[in-house]
Amino acid sequence: MEVAALSPTSRSLPLLSTAPTHRLHLLPHRFVSGRRLRLSSRHEGFGCVRDGWGQRHSAPSVEPATQEVGTAVPGDWSGDVIRQRFLEFYAARGHKILPSSSLVPDDPTVFLTIAGMLQFKPIFLGKEPRRVPCATTSQKCVRTNDIENVGRTARHQTFFEMLGNFSFGDYFKKEATAWAWELATKEYGLPAERLWISVFEDDDEAFNIWHNEVGVPKEHIKRMGAEDNFWTSGATGPCGPCSEMYYDFYPERGSSDADLGDDSRFIEFYNLVFMQYNKKDDGSLEPLKQKNIDTGMGLERVARILQKVPNNYETDLIFPIIEKAASLALVSYAKADDAMKTNLKIIGDHMRAVVYLISDGVLPSNIGRGYVVRRLIRRVVRTGRLIGIRGDGHEKPEGAFLPSLAEVVINLSTQIDPAVESRRKSIIAELQREELRFVQTLGRGEKLLDELLDEALLSAGNNGNKPSLSGKDVFLLYDTYGFPVEITAEIAGERGVTVDMKGFEIEMENQRKQSQAAHNVVKLSVGNETEIVKSIPDTEFLGYDSLSATAVVKGLLVNGNPVNEVSEGSEVEILLDRTPFYAESGGQVGDNGFLYVNGGEDRKQTAVIEINDVQKSIGNIFVHKGTIKHGSVEVGKEIDASVDAKLRQGAKAHHTATHLLQSALKSVVGSETSQAGSLVAFDRLRFDFNFHRPLSEEELIKIESLVNQWIGNATHLETKVMALQDAKNAGAIAMFGEKYGEEVRVVEVPGVSLELCGGTHVSNTAEIRGFKIISEQGIASGIRRIEAVAGDAFVDYVCARDNYMRRLCSSLKVKAEDVNGRVDTILEELRATRNEVSSLRSKIAVLKAGSLASKATTVEPQNVRIVVENLGDVDADALKSAAEYLIGTLQDPAAVILGSSPGDGKVSLVAAFSPAVVKMGLQAGKFVGRIAKLCGGGGGGKPNFAQAGGRKPENLPDALEKARTEIVAVVSSSSS
Fold first, then answer.
1. 659 is an annotated ligand-binding site residue
2. What is the DSSP secondary-structure string of 876-942?
3. What is the pLDDT of residues 706-718, one digit of tens each?
């Protein structure tokens, strides 16, 4: 494969600054990608450059390289260089380089960041004003809907980078297509004859631009249907035709009947979306007033082309991880067979995804995004074990190998996301914990597989069928316990058991469909809400300085629909031009209070609206939600707004206490812990943080003591507004869930805390009065939660606890300092009494069992003595004693199955088999577990003795009868 190449570019060349670009016409020369640009006085290639102030200038044209086609080596086109050249190319054409957003989107409709356009969604919807006319980014993305194709195709990945250029009503099709062609053919040096274009079948405009103005031959332009070349975000919303660029690996095959969907020949590497329509509820399309450009170029795909490797995985973006995995497995990638290479590619891909997700605060868990991380980690671990990696891959068989792979990923991350390096320690620690935890799960999976194979063999023996594992069981082993299907099939085959692969594929397809439905859609909509707020400016917030203000009603909503007037008794949402009410954000709840409508010259109150919540809507518009208690309110009326001062003070105390709590946590347990969520309410605070273990009582006391010490210091808070980058440079911490603009509000408790925060705070820490931790608990894997009270809520809590203690002291007739000792004495007396009662119950059960020995049934041909009985309400310990007595009294061979209903909807079961019965193939653990399922429970144990339980005592008689029937049948069929 021949690929044109440009001159080598230094890896050390810095990216252009994100600050406004200088006016190019004032500079004698400009260097981009290591080559000098010459400024042109003519309008070349539709190019025009905007500087940071919105002024247009002629586009510089790039002098073409003189290097011959096909002489480049992969090092000339590293992934870092390709990314850098893309961003610089568009920066030179007036685009502002913006950083990648987090993989956790600030958007409740999207599970993970799956496209570069996501951070610009509010601008495309018209919900936020554009800050720049056009932008360019390299966005890190995660998609898991095609996880089963990773490693098996040349291009599917879970983690990838999407290079993009975006226009917000600035340029459109002509410039986008021309620049895309110039980037591909001049900047990257791709031969024009290898490039193909697809356009939407009805988009004559795009076809003509590509052919007549760019110069692409007609035979290299394919018209395609809406399924391939018309982008929609959902049932309604912004949409438009697409145009895609493809690279042809085999141009010698000619143009006749060429199929762009042929992955073996073509790869799509650049997608241009012309967002020009709004799709309405009835399916009709109306032109957007502001036409936008949204593009995406897969970095790994372009790297594959320029580095001349057979797939995305063998580019320098991923291959170093693969090489490390191969070394840990003691294999050579170059000499490996296809199966081994596939497994190494899976490891290389998934490791990138988990490292960047954990860096962005997504920790392994069993729900939501955390489950994605856990699933990918488990896939890497089980794949690593499949290819022979043991322990840490070096000398510790009990160690973890993911940290070694993570080190490689982190070393490659510098140009993608510099923040990953700063989180190296916590990322590696989390991966090590999760891997070691999963290795234990794999051990349980091996035990379960052994049990399932035993059951399959036993069931087949009873029914005369061929033993087989069901598809559901195979999927359970795969999905829950991380057992590779190949290993399950191999072990099952060794024991003569087949695997229902068709059933397994059905289960996999069901999961795949659910994953696609949940994770691969970016929802945009243009509806009534957008139309309502178009004429309403952002709400001016006055609440930092005042709890009351006069304002004008700018809009009214009832059930989401705009109205001009609302009368008494109605629920209403009110939009004001200014307000002292805080709208919920950054974890802090919205204010409560009242709005008063005044009429006439005497300003007599004509209406009263009780406000019970305030939320932010599109942009920065505050929505006051409440009930009209008296009178009516109209759009345009002047009102007096009054915040409930007592509740606001509670919120302020708890919000400042949250900042102090975070600082205390970092001081006591380590700076690597970080916020994972918060709630600042009027009566309490809740703080979620990343940590791998419960906090000790001593640590909680230290944290509480530190916070109260800082409160007692009576420190004045300082707040200031500054540039976001200046705040970060000063060390300010971002509050979880908060969205920041270019200017931010910084709240500082001098010497203690410095955070970006738009919330309301006390002016002096002494106003908090006191702080008390109520609870500390785990809410997900790696996520802990502290609940606490401060301010008036702290005083109320302490007083309530004091009252409880007074009553307890009165009941126990002791002083407060003697309560613990008295309670310990009572508990010890209770334990002794319980032990005595249990001993008596066991003796009674044994006495009952003594009478059962004479009732034992003898079953031929081996004279097995069997006892199956219900002992009534005896507890599990007594039932165990009775079974042990019986099996010791009866002569071998003997089998005892006992059940009881000790109360509270419980069932207890026990099985005891003598050695001769065990030799017949009966195992107490498996036998009693199956019987317990009939009572809504389960259990197990050793082959000779086992216990189980259940929750359906009404089913116990039938369960015991089934036990009797099964054991008689097995014993009767056994040969001597």
1. yes
2. HHHHHHHHHHHHHHSPSSEEEEEEEEEETTEEEEEEEE-HHHHHTT--HHHHHHHHHHTTT-EEEE-
3. 999 999 999 999 9
